[in-house]
Amino acid sequence: MILEFRLGNIFSFRDEIVLDLQAAKIQTEKGKALYGNLFDIAGGQALKSISIFGANASGKSNVIKGIIACIDMIRSSHTYNEGTIFSVVPFKFAGYDQKPSSFFVRFILNEIEYEYSFTMTRTEILTEQLYYYPKGRRSLVFSRDETKGDDKKNIYEFKQVIKRPMDVAANTSRKSLFISRASQMDRDIAKRVYRFFSEDIVLDYKESAMPIENFIKNQKENILEILNTADSDIVDIKIQGNSLKTFHRSNPNIAFDFDTEESEGTKTVFQMMLSMIDIIRNGRTLLIDEIETSLHPHLVEYIINLFNNSVNAQLIYTTHNTHLLNRDFQRRDQVYFVNKRIDGCSDLYSLYDFKDFRDTFDMDVKIAMIDNQKVILGGHRNDR
Predict the structure, then answer these.
(1) What is the rounded radius of gyration, in angstroms, for the C-alpha atoms of the chain?
(2) What are phi and psi of 129, to 5 degrees?
(3) How much is the pLDDT for 39?
(4) Which helix (H) or strand (E) holds 354?
(5) CB atoms < 10 A from the CB of 77, how many?
(6) Residue whose C-alpha is closest to residue 247's, from 230, 229, 266
C-alpha cells in the first residue's frame, strides 16, 4: 500500500511535489459518508484512489511519468552499464538541468511502514536511503552518499538488517541502486522491497490478468455487470471445451465463439476487466494516465468505484474530464490539480488545500492560477 510519493526536479516539476495518500481528517457529513474510500492503517487511514486533474499540457501526465521513472530505476538499475543515460529528465530551465532529481516513497509492506528515497543525475546515483518501522519506531536499514568519495566504507552506513552488506556495496556502481543490486544478490529485506515495486505496483493494466478459467469460476457476475455498463448485450459467459462462449440477450440460447464472433471492442473490454479484477483481487496499486482515453468512457466511473469499494487496492489516475469532479464518490483529499505556471514549471495541489472550499459547492469546478494565487472558478452553491 502506498502512503506517499514525493518527486523533485523532474520533467516539468522544478520544486518537490507531494502526492499524499494518507487520508486527511475530514469531519464533514459527506466526508464521513465516503469512509468506504479509505483503508484503516495504524494511526489513521489511507486513500484507495487519487485523481489528478489538469488541462492539456499542464504537466499532469508528468506526475505519472515521474512515478514510473522512479519504479523503473528500482526494477532495472542493476542491469545498467557504464554508458547508460537515465530516462529521468530534470526541469530544463534556470539551471535546474544541472541539479539532481529526487524521489521518495512511503509505503506499507506486510503491515510494516517503509521509507525509501534516492537522488540522481542523468548519469549517476548520488544518494539512497531505506528506513522502516519494525516496532513502530523509525530505524535505518541503509544509507548511501556517493559524494563522500570512493571508499565504500565512507559512502555506506548499515544497521544489522542486511547480511554481508559490503559485499553488495562492492558490486553496486553509481549506475545502480543498492536496493536493486541487493535484491539480485538474495538479501532478504531488499528482495521484499524490490518485489513490492515489481509486483504490487502496476504500470500498465494490460500486463496483469488472471487466468480465464479462474475468472469464469469466481468473477463472472462482475464481468457481466461491467460488460452491461459498456453497452454490451452479453448475458452469460461459459467455457465449453477449450473455447470461451458468449450468450446475448436477443438470443440467449445461442452460443457465440468469443475469439471469432465477438467485436474487437468487446474483446478489449473483456481483457481489460480481467486485468482490473486481478489487480483489485490481489490488492495492487494501479497507475493510469488519461483514464478517459485508456478505458471505455462508460467504464471510467465504474472502475473508480470498484477501487473505492475494494479491500486493499489503490488507483492513481490523471484526467482532464471535469465530469469526474464528483463529490458523490470522491473526498476532497482524493482530488489533486496540476497547473502550469508562467515560468514553465508545474505545480501540484490537493483540493484539500483549499480551506475555504465547502461541501455545499458542486464539484464541477475549475482551478486557475492568477499571480500564483489558487482561485476556484465556476463553483456554485448547491441549495439542496
Answers:
(1) 23
(2) -145, 150
(3) 92
(4) none
(5) 22
(6) 266
Q: How far is CA 176 from CA 74, 166, 183, 301, in A?
A: 9, 15, 12, 40
pLDDT tens digit sequence for 197-212: 999 999 988 776 666 7
pLDDT digits (tens, 9 = 90+) for 251-282: 899 999 988 998 887 877 777 788 888 899 89
What is the SS3 assignment for 126?
A: strand
Residues shown for the chain: 384
CB 302 within 8 A of CB 279: no
- Answer for the pair 156, 165: CB distance below 8 angstroms, yes or no: yes
Please state, rounded to an integer, the average pLDDT across all residues of the chain.
87
From the candidate CATH numbers 3.30.43.10, 3.40.50.300, 3.40.50.150, 3.10.105.10, the one assigned to the domain spanning 1-206+284-384: 3.40.50.300
Poorest-pLDDT segment among 105-109, 132-136, 360-364? 360-364
Decide if 292 contacts 263 (C-beta within 8 A).
no
Q: Measured between alpha carbons, how far is 318 from 300 in angstroms, rounded to an integer?
A: 12
DSSP one-letter code for 188: H
Q: What residue type is assigned to position 72 of the chain?
A: D
How far apart (Å, rounded) are the C-alpha atoms in residues 357 and 373? 15
Q: What is the DSSP letter of 13?
A: B
DSSP 198: I
Domain map of the chain by residue range?
A: 1-206+284-384, 209-276
In this prediction, residue 210 carries a pLDDT of: 62
CA angle 33, 364, 57 (to 5 degrees): 120
The average pLDDT across 359-377 equals 43
| Count of beta carbons in the 10 Å neighbourhood of residue 370 | 8
d(CA 243, CA 220): 16
Q: Which of 25, 26, 44, 19 is nearest to 358 (CA)?
A: 26
Segments in the chain forming alpha helices (H): 29-33, 60-76, 152-155, 165-170, 178-184, 188-195, 212-218, 220-229, 258-261, 264-281, 291-294, 300-308
Confirm if 139 and 158 have CB atoms less than 8 A apart.
no
pTM of the model: 0.88
